[in-house]
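Case study B.
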Amino acid sequence: DTGVSQNPRHKITKRGQNVTFRCDPISEHNRLYWYRQTLGQGPEFLTYFQNEAQLEKSRLLSDRFSAERPKGSFSTLEIQRTEQGDSAMYLCASSPDRRNTEAFFGQGTRLTVV
Amino acid sequence: AQSVTQPDIHITVSEGASLELRCNYSYGATPYLFWYVQSPGQGLQLLLKYFSGDTLVQGIKGFEAEFKRSQSSFNLRKPSVHWSDAAEYFCAVGLGSGGTSYGKLTFGQGTILTVHP
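Model:
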């Protein structure tokens, strides 16, 4: 399967713990995006990488959130000191660096903070 | 700032009936428009996209959408709905910077489609 892969698919954590999610984009895609989707809402943009450079961050990405893409391939999203409000689906997407193309989404990581 | 409105939170249709899901956007320039579908607990699958040219675009699974600039709309249609079409549908507008950044999207709230047999 050459689609966008996200791990884990589900994560349950206690409030205050740190969690890390991984995203493996489609291999030839050098653009990578993270989104957050809460129940009953559409996805909201969090951050964007072009290769290893993080080019844009949403105001939704508080100081407790950090994303990396160290070698321009896979990416990680870490949430420190989780709060109940962090419970959501975290979606990763990738796209190639050319005109008139869409983003391809992974199946997401469902985070539940208890 | 750009925004997308899907006025219908939940729509119920009978199998075989026609379907139209509404989408209105607010954006200062020519938008790049998308419809995605999401099954419960799953990621997003692209149904169709509009970048330029013919305002009536065809997508997968028999869906089509029409871009109407004068109405700032991009409504999704299907002539005959199948039970497997039950899912949540999201309209999105893509933001361009130099015409290349289509992965940064603003989504609508979504429309849940229920199909009765």
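The interface with chain A takes residues 4, 34, 36, 41-46, 49, 51-52, 90, 92, 94, 99-110 of chain B (CB under 8 Å). The remaining cases will be described in the next quarterly update.
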